[in-house]
Amino acid sequence: MKWTQLPLGPLQTNAYIFENADKEAIIFDPGGNGRELVSWLQDRSLKPLAILLTHAHFDHIGAVDEVRDAFSCPVYIHEKEQYWLTDPVQNGSQRFLGNEGIIVKKADKIIKNEYTLTIGSFRFEMFETPGHSPGSISYYCKEENIVFSGDVLFEQSIGRTDLAGGNEQQLLSSIHRKLLELPEETVVACGHGRPTTIGKEMDSNPFLSGF
Question: Which tens digits make up the pLDDT trace of 82-109?
């Protein structure tokens, strides 16, 4: 399997395309530029099997409907943020984009707890990692040594907690109890910026010391 990082949308949020040898793919957080993303996928003859959302902030969901409609693939979201997709106030788009609020159709699959998600040949352990937002989910693929964590953990930083439902202590707890328990060589596919590893952040992330 291989993965590709594509910064999309107004905040250049990282979407990730995770594909197997059969050209099947999982799409994480398609944040914008929907037409271009659909063309990118079609040009490579990729067949998306699902859209997995780490959370429902506007910059992570802007191209959801265009990708879903083009490939007839289901959208997964945590139950605590299922209604954010249709609400520009809760997903933050009204605050940051004004009249250009983002409204996305309801998700097809609602995540209610932690479990192992299998879609075709893809398998992910799902961790509830709230703090940046109440329904943040991290998707860990043990076989490929990577976790798609959205805006929970960044290179030398952590997710912001000043938006609706944010809680810094909860976020730090999520990172320490879920992500830092993963092998140190695990790649952290962040929602913004460059990917990092669990080991690097354990050693040098200034936000994680003293918790």
Answer: 999 999 999 999 988 877 799 999 999 9
Q: Is residue 210 domain-resident?
A: no
Q: Is the pTM of this model over 0.90?
A: yes
Exposure letters 55-80 (e unless 16+ CB within 10 A, then b): bbbbbbbbbbbbbbebbebebbbbeb
Segments forming the whole domain that contains residue 141: 2-204
CATH number of the domain that 88 lies in?
Answer: 3.60.15.10
Centroid of chain to Cα 207: 21
Q: By the 8 A CB rule, do 174 and 130 touch?
A: yes
Residue 47 lies in a domain: yes
- Residues 25 and 14 sit within 8 Å (Cβ to Cβ): no
Q: How many domains does the chain have?
A: 1
Tell me if 14 is assigned to some domain.
Answer: yes
Instruction: Give Cβ neighbours of residue 193 (< 8 Å, ≥ 6 apart).
Output: 14, 154, 155, 157
